């Protein structure tokens, strides 16, 4: 049976980053986009990173262009956007798929560990539900990533402990990270 540490992703320079490099750390894995209504999550992600990186947090930023083409540009352009607009210190990986036959094996694993559990309540949740019903009427019944800025939280032992949809308040994400630090 596989675990988080069995996987790897590709860095912007083309080299492989094995998840085993994160043994003993708390990891937040997030599929991102530069032109999405949730793109301001980068600000909160950077604040979380600054608060907890020295205590063992890593953020694994995986840009994805599968949701309405909201991540145009090259990997370097995505990186430049993030550093210029949000002063991110965590690096962005190469743009990758999180759903479908070309999905990263890491994402296949993450989705097998924590499936979709809903968008919660509020206007953003209602907006996402309404939009997704048109795209995939059965969206509630599968583990697929629904949109940009879905986050998976991995503890220091490599266990996938939570999945946060993009509609989740970033204060909730921060509190969950802090509880593991």
Automatic annotation (TrEMBL):
<keyword id="KW-0560">Oxidoreductase</keyword>
<protein>
    <recommendedName>
        <fullName>Glutathione peroxidase</fullName>
    </recommendedName>
</protein>
<dbReference type="GO" id="GO:0004601">
    <property type="term" value="F:peroxidase activity"/>
</dbReference>
<dbReference type="GO" id="GO:0034599">
    <property type="term" value="P:cellular response to oxidative stress"/>
</dbReference>
<comment type="similarity">
    <text>Belongs to the glutathione peroxidase family.</text>
</comment>
<keyword id="KW-0575">Peroxidase</keyword>
<dbReference type="InterPro" id="IPR029759">
    <property type="entry name" value="GPX_AS"/>
</dbReference>
<feature type="active site">
    <location>
        <position position="36"/>
    </location>
</feature>
<dbReference type="Pfam" id="PF00255">
    <property type="entry name" value="GSHPx"/>
</dbReference>
<dbReference type="InterPro" id="IPR036249">
    <property type="entry name" value="Thioredoxin-like_sf"/>
</dbReference>
<dbReference type="InterPro" id="IPR000889">
    <property type="entry name" value="Glutathione_peroxidase"/>
</dbReference>
């Amino acid at each position: 049976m596989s675990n988080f540490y069995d996987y790897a992703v590709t860095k912007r320079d083309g080299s492989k980053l094995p998840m085993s490099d994160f043994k003993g750390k708390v990891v937040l894995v997030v599929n991102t986009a530069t032109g999405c209504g949730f793109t301001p999550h980068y600000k909160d992600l950077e604040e979380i990173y600054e608060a907890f990186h020295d205590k063992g947090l890593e953020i694994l930023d995986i840009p994805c262009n599968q949701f309405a083409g909201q991540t145009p540009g090259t990997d370097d352009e995505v990186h430049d956007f993030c550093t210029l607009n949000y002063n991110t210190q965590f690096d962005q990986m190469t743009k990758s798929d999180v759903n479908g036959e070309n999905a990263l094996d890491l994402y296949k694993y993450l989705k097998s560990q924590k499936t979709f559990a809903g968008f919660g309540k509020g206007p953003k949740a209602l907006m996402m539900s309404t939009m997704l019903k048109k795209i995939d009427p059965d969206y509630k019944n599968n583990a697929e990533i629904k949109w940009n800025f879905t986050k998976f939280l991995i503890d220091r032992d490599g266990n996938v402990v939570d999945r946060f949809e993009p509609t989740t308040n970033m204060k909730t994400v921060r509190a969950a990270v802090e509880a593991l630090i």
